[in-house]
Write a sequence for this structure.
């Protein structure tokens, strides 16, 4: 049977929902155990004779992938083929800026745009440390949006950024990603859709991730909140690339292979000492560099 290209728009463990070329949607299962499609993937799929389900037989080449190492040090892909990474922090829970830095490092290595969103501004505007951190991101060149899903402040600006793009919204658990999505969707959400299980075990309702079409254009991938996140980086230069202000300053270092730690003539260290580069962002770089080297030793 001839296969056709489709896009994964929802994942439920080993079951998927696909969007076909004519925008119709079908449910699908995966051929074999080695294939691991994710939301955003384009796949080869074919209808199964005498069934409503389709069968995913291959994953097409990815333009990019948001990934992390799992507990065994293996690469776990979370989403694919995205144009924009929306990293959300909030008044509560207390922001972990190091997690935000790691998502931004992933975006740089994926060669996609990123925006920092600070949510729940209806509750508070943030303390001095928050204002400093958000200022550091703006200084590094990232758009920083303050918004409230409750009052819808800042939502229109975010909608304009997503228009005609595929975005993924990420961040710590509890920062209000689902609330932001509900507002972006105009109060209409499809994230509670069920997907049939043809084995007779009822229906799955636990969604790993789902792509939603926004009324004003563009698509957004909802992903589960995390307690921690690290990008999959394979070298010191990849870590440097993840911090755009460090990468830029590094061009003036004495040595081309400077790790920006203890090397003489390091322009990055000098920029940190002169408050040109945020000391906290620099510490985040150091932590990610050491983590990357540790993971590299395990593989």
């Amino acid at each position: 049977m001839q296969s056709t290209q489709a896009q994964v728009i929802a994942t439920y463990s080993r079951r998927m929902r696909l969007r076909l070329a004519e925008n119709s949607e079908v449910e699908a299962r995966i051929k074999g155990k080695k294939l691991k499609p994710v939301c955003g993937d384009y796949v080869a799929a074919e209808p199964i004779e005498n069934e409503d389900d389709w069968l995913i037989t291959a994953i097409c080449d990815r333009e990019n992938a948001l990934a992390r190492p799992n507990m065994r040090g293996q690469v776990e892909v979370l989403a694919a083929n995205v144009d924009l990474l929306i990293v959300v922090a909030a008044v509560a829970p207390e922001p972990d800026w190091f997690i935000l830095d790691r998502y931004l490092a992933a975006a740089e290595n994926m060669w996609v745009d990123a925006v920092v969103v600070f949510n729940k501004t209806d509750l508070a505007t943030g303390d001095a440390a928050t204002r400093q951190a958000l200022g550091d991101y703006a200084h590094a060149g990232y758009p920083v949006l303050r918004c409230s899903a409750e009052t819808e402040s800042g939502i229109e600006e975010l909608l304009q950024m997503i228009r005609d793009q595929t975005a993924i919204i990420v961040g710590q658990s509890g920062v209000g990603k689902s609330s932001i999505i509900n507002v972006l969707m105009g109060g209409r959400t499809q994230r509670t859709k069920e997907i049939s299980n043809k084995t007779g075990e009822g229906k799955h309702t636990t969604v790993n991730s789902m792509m939603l079409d926004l009324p004003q254009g563009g698509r957004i991938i909802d992903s589960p909140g995390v307690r921690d996140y690290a990008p999959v980086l394979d070298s010191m230069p990849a870590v440097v690339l993840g911090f755009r202000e460090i990468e830029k300053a590094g061009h003036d270092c004495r040595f081309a292979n400077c790790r920006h730690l203890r090397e003489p003539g390091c322009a990055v260290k000098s920029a940190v000492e002169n408050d040109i580069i945020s000391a906290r962002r620099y510490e985040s770089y150091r932590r990610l560099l050491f983590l990357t080297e540790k993971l590299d030793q395990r593989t």
The first strand starts at residue 4 and ends at 12. DSSP finds eight helices and 15 strands in the chain.
